[in-house]
Amino acid sequence: MDFALARRVEVLPPYPFAKLRAAIAAKKARGINVISLGIGDPDRHAPDVVVEELCRAARDRADPNKDRYGCDAPVAALPEAIKNFYHRRYGVNLQPEQIQPTMGSKDAIVKLCMGLINPGDIGIAPCPGYPTYNIGHTFASGVTYRVRLRAEDGFLMDFDGIPQEVRRLAKILWLNYPNNPTSAVADLDFFRRAVEFGRQNNILIAHDSAYSENTFDGYQAPSILQVPGADEVAVEFFSLSKAFNMTGWRLGCLVGNASAVQALHLVKDNVDNGTFRAVQFAGAKALDHAEKIFTEVNAVYKERRDLVVNALRAQGWTVNSPQATVYVWAPVPEKYHGSSEAFATDLLEKTNVAITPGRAFGEGGEGFYRISLTYPIEALKEALDRIAKL
Ligand SMILES: *Cc1c(COP(=O)(O)O)cnc(C)c1O
User: Fold this and answer.
1) Any alpha helices (H) in the chain, and if so which ranges?
2) Is 283 near ligand 1, meaning CB less than 6 Å away?
């Protein structure tokens, strides 16, 4: 028997480049060596000190709660490490009720929507942007209003352009800086304006800081919670995924506005039962060693970034060198007349290199493409050599 999908799943947007994806799969099936630079999932391993702590905690028979539900037996060291990290790194003082560990941001973004959004409520999301914000709104029977991020605004969200009618119905607004896919960064003044917008319109500002620690050349990304009074209207999703090479571990936290943190806590309590204690111990250890880990992780990405940016510029293509994230985001070469699909298809056809067309992140991404730096330098070099022969 085939059971019909629920509407909330049926209405999920299909991947917009099914043809391109099929072409990649077909080439691979024919044994062609396709180099895929599409996905933002670190290729390197989690730090040894973190793996060792995981093993220690998983073996610790003296801990009577070792294998119990993570939510019933939370590891106090984790919120403590989060609090200490936010204080050290940002000068932000978090109260216990402002901290909720998560199973990564993706999961928690959807769960926060389940906890806050009623049918008909609007969620405001950036376009181009990470698709999960919209999915959260949809699963909670809300509606997404997309705000175009424009190159001429440095891909910062233009709050003034959001209509009054939308502001009235909106419950939540999503920001993400350093940004995926555009690699744009925001300064504290931008976050000040975001907090002001939230306060004036009674909208929760949810900042997804997935790449806050993937930064280069001495750049330090601010936290929205550094804005005085931000915790009245803002929360921040911090994640251990990208900066610690720990995507598979599913670990992060939501911090900030206590009522929003409580909303997420209630949903989690009724749905997931929390994170395995050994993973919580390991997360605390990671945060305690954060600065050393970031230095090592970012040195690798910086080398890759410079390689990619220099090689593309040698082609005569326009490329900004990103100060943060693990992506290079650039306008498609002129001869493709702004069609990111035409560029991606041609590149795949002629070089067997796959990149992500900007349009995959929404209409606002059209005219651009994204290369992920989460691949070994040898693979990047080989891909760039092929592109140079194009
Ligand atoms: C990768 C990514 C996430 C997901 O992070 P997890 O903590 O692994 O769920 C969230 N937001 C953005 C913008 C991302 O690129």
Assistant:
1) 7-10, 18-29, 48-59, 77-90, 105-116, 132-139, 164-169, 188-201, 258-271, 277-288, 290-314, 340-351, 377-388
2) no
